[in-house]
Amino acid sequence: MRRFHHQKRRGTLAAVAVTGLLALGTLSACSSSGGKEAEEQQSQAAAGGAAAGPRLKIAMITHSGAGDTFWDIVQKGARAAAAKDNVEFLYSADPEGGKQAQLVQAAIDQKVDGIIVTLAKPDALRDVVARAVRAKIPVVTINSGAEESAEFGALVHFGQDETIAGRAAGEQLNKVGAKKAICVIHEQGNVGLEARCAGAQKTFAGQMENLNVQGTNMPQVKSSVTAKLQADKSVDGVLALNADVALTTVDAAKDAGSGAKIATFDMNKQLIAALKDGRIQFAIDQQPYLQGYEAVDELWLYKRNGNILGGGQPVSTGPAIVDKNTAASIEQFADAGTR
């Protein structure tokens, strides 16, 4: 498995390649913080011996849309750390920036001990993150917003540099022989997704254009990709930006009678089989389990001992390239829902 790590110093970037609106406690449609999940978390804590000390309450608020399996993996990591650290973990999400900001405000109003947030639409979150910081609630960012994290007052950011990851994807598309590709953006306005496509365009030797789809509506994704592949038979590569879209694109290419080679960002259990049998050429894995786990752990460390990881710089959890040759080595973890 090939991994790419990065550091930022004074605006320069170097890469080395080496392998809605209610209080969080009462949310229903967009929250999974209570009920069975909370009971499971408490059970894990009791079985594993949770950390001593006062119980903390930590809220995670993301831009996830309904049914996005990527965020299931993030939550799994966060809940594992919460069980270990004697933390009550609250989760909520909304893909619309303004509503996500209102969920953050709900967490502030609950006087939680820490907030984990994604900055896919940073302008919508700027003011509310500043309010959390003024309220002396430590904030950690994950997944999206590495560029804005420190500026907004967050302790640290956990994720991958999306531009570096995009460049890696472009290089891999060259290796599989694609000459004309589309980059499928499943959430319009998400700065991280746009950076992935922009990075891929920088290293891809062929021609690439973006295709915007509705990532929360897979029938629409399928029809849009099918139509594009039918309209332009010269497209021989498709770069999806999450696993669910990639698997839908496999079906779209089949319907369109296209032999386009399909690649993706991010992983899930179903994607492993597609990698092994060649339906998907490769995946760029940012290890979402780590993002959830390390975010909760960082807030616990900060509250208990004043620790801050990263030395003021984003902490990389990826990217790593997974292909047919390496998929089997992580299959057991994907089956467990942690990759």
Brief account:
By secondary structure, the chain is α/β, with parallel strands linked by helices. It is built from twelve helices and 14 strands.
CATH classification, class level of the largest domain: Alpha Beta
- Parts with pLDDT < 50 across at least 5 consecutive residues: 1-34, 44-48
Gyration radius (Cα, Å) is: 20 Å
Strand content: 15-25%
Structural class: alpha/beta
Distance between the termini: 14 Å
Q: Mean pLDDT across all residues, rounded? A: 88
Spatial arrangement of strands, main beta sheet: 2-1-14-12-11-10-8-9
- The percent of residues in helical segments reads 40-55%
CATH topology label of the largest domain: Rossmann fold
| Shape-level CATH architecture of the largest domain | 3-Layer(aba) Sandwich
Number of helices: 12
The biggest beta sheet reads: 8 strands, mixed
Whole-number count of domains: 2
Number of strands: 14
Element-level helix/strand string:
EEHEHEHEHEHEHEHEHEHEHEHEEH
CATH superfamily (homologous) name of the largest domain: Response regulator
Question: What is the molecular shape?
Answer: elongated
Would you mind describing this structure in some detail?
The chain is α/β, with parallel strands linked by helices and 339 residues long. The protein has two domains: 2-160 and 288-307, 3-Layer(aba) Sandwich (Rossmann fold), CATH 3.40.50.2300; 162-285, Rossmann fold (3-Layer(aba) Sandwich), CATH 3.40.50. Helices cover 44% and strands 21% of the residues. The chain has twelve helices and 14 strands. The protein has helices spanning 35-48, 69-85, 97-109, 122-134, 146-152, 162-175, 191-203, 218-231, 243-256, 269-276, 288-305, 331-335, and strands at residues 2-9, 12-17, 56-62, 87-93, 114-117, 139-142, 157-159, 180-185, 207-212, 237-240, 261-265, 282-285, 315-316, 320-323. It has an eight-stranded mixed β-sheet with strand order 2-1-14-12-11-10-8-9, with helices on both faces. A six-stranded parallel β-sheet has the order 4-3-5-6-7-13, sandwiched between helices. Helix 2 (69-85) links the parallel strand 3 (56-62) and strand 4 (87-93). Helix 1 (35-48) packs across helix 2 and helix 6 packs across helix 7 (191-203). The chain is elongated, with a radius of gyration of 20 Å. Residues 1-34 and 44-48 have low confidence and may be disordered.
